[in-house]
Design goal:
Shape: elongated
Strand order of the largest sheet: 5-6-7-8-9-10-11
Number of domains: 3
Oligomer: single chain
Helix content: 40-55%
Number of strands: 11
Order of helices and strands: EHEEEHHHHHHHEEEHHEHEEE
Structural class: alpha+beta
CATH class of the largest domain: Alpha Beta
Radius of gyration: 32 Å
CATH topology of the largest domain: Endonuclease, Chain A
Largest sheet: 7 strands, mixed
Length: about 325
């Protein structure tokens, strides 16, 4: 926000006509004239005070021409604080490109890819043989090895920095970093469609639709209906592999499942669970009927329902009864 209301300018033949046209009188070259800041020309070098619109604390002194230049895209003023500058940068990118970073824009990505293809023969310049060879040559010159992490000093420096910053040699050992990494990985796999799914899960998805392997924080839902906040889980023969392989005890596995269930429930999600340890799923029409039945039930204020195909029952907090699959 512009704080300055009036400024002093030294008159000269170039600006005298400008101020004369604005109604200023008795103008003489080399004299000082006090003018309203809005009467300055856009290219004026007069110094003005500007309050940052992001932190509302820092006041900057800048040339009026720079004040105008920095408001070309977003009509906000920014100080030199890195967080404020980052916010303004993101807003500018969103205005110009429609995304918070230029390389997320499909047209920009295509242009970069085409340029690299013409110049290096690959979609990304880092994938070219020349770049790889040059990188190895530089590493040999600087570290005596092909890759930096092959050098003992580099590894020790990395460990020292990690201990200083995180308190451990390997940051992924920290739970909050591990969870953040899992969350990012699930999102990438969901977007790329590379998350592993069981045959039964894929078949059910083909029948009922929804979002396959939908990520919620660090959890991946088998099939989700985000608009309804309902998810479908299939428990087949591979559901408890972590117990079978000895990675978790049965008690630990059950605790983990309950924790997951209540985490989702607290965020408003409702669960439909289909159990078939024999990996046998009902006919298509029956699957559709089950999901319709479950959604009708959940929409009456309940949070979970379970279809046990092996035992021929359906159960919830309100009932446990026979169901023909």
């Amino acid at each position: 926000m512009l704080l300055t209301k009036e400024v002093e300018v030294i008159l000269n033949p170039k600006n005298m006509s400008h101020y004369s046209n604005l109604g200023y009188e008795n103008l003489k070259a080399k004299e000082i004239l006090i003018v309203k800041v809005e009467h300055l020309s856009k290219g004026s070098h007069a110094m003005v005070e500007v309050l940052c619109d992001y932190c509302n604390e820092n006041i900057s002194l800048k040339k009026y021409k720079d004040y105008n230049k920095h408001r070309d895209i977003t009509q906000k003023d920014c100080c030199n604080n890195k967080n404020c500058k980052q916010q303004k940068r993101i807003e500018s990118f969103e205005t110009v490109y429609g995304v918070n970073w230029p390389t997320k824009n499909d047209e920009i990505k295509l242009k970069i890819s085409n340029t690299c293809q013409e110049k290096y023969g690959t979609a990304f310049h880092t994938g070219s043989e020349n770049h790889k060879l040059k990188s190895i040559e530089t590493c040999r010159k600087n570290y005596g090895v092909d890759y930096p992490m092959q050098n003992e000093k580099v590894r020790l420096k990395r460990d020292e920095n990690n201990i200083k910053k995180y308190g451990v040699k390997i940051p992924i050992q920290l739970d909050y970093i591990k969870q953040k990494a899992i969350k990012s990985l699930l999102l990438v796999k969901y977007k790329n469609g590379t998350m592993k799914s069981s045959t039964q899960q894929n078949l059910i998805h083909q029948i009922i639709g929804g979002e396959l392997n939908y990520p919620i924080d660090n959890i991946s839902l088998d099939i989700a209906f985000p608009n309804e906040k309902i998810y479908v889980e299939f428990d087949g023969s591979g559901h408890d592999l972590s117990v079978k392989y000895g990675d978790l005890s049965k008690e630990e596995f059950i605790r983990h499942e309950l924790k997951r269930k209540y985490y989702l429930k607290n965020r408003g999600w409702k669960e439909i669970r289909i159990i078939s340890i024999k990996d046998v799923i009902p006919e298509d029409n029956k699957i559709i009927e089950m999901i319709r039945y479950a959604k009708d039930y959940l929409n009456t204020g309940h949070s979970w329902i379970k279809f046990n195909v092996d035992e021929g029952i359906v159960e919830s907090s309100q009932f446990n009864k026979q169901y023909y699959y």
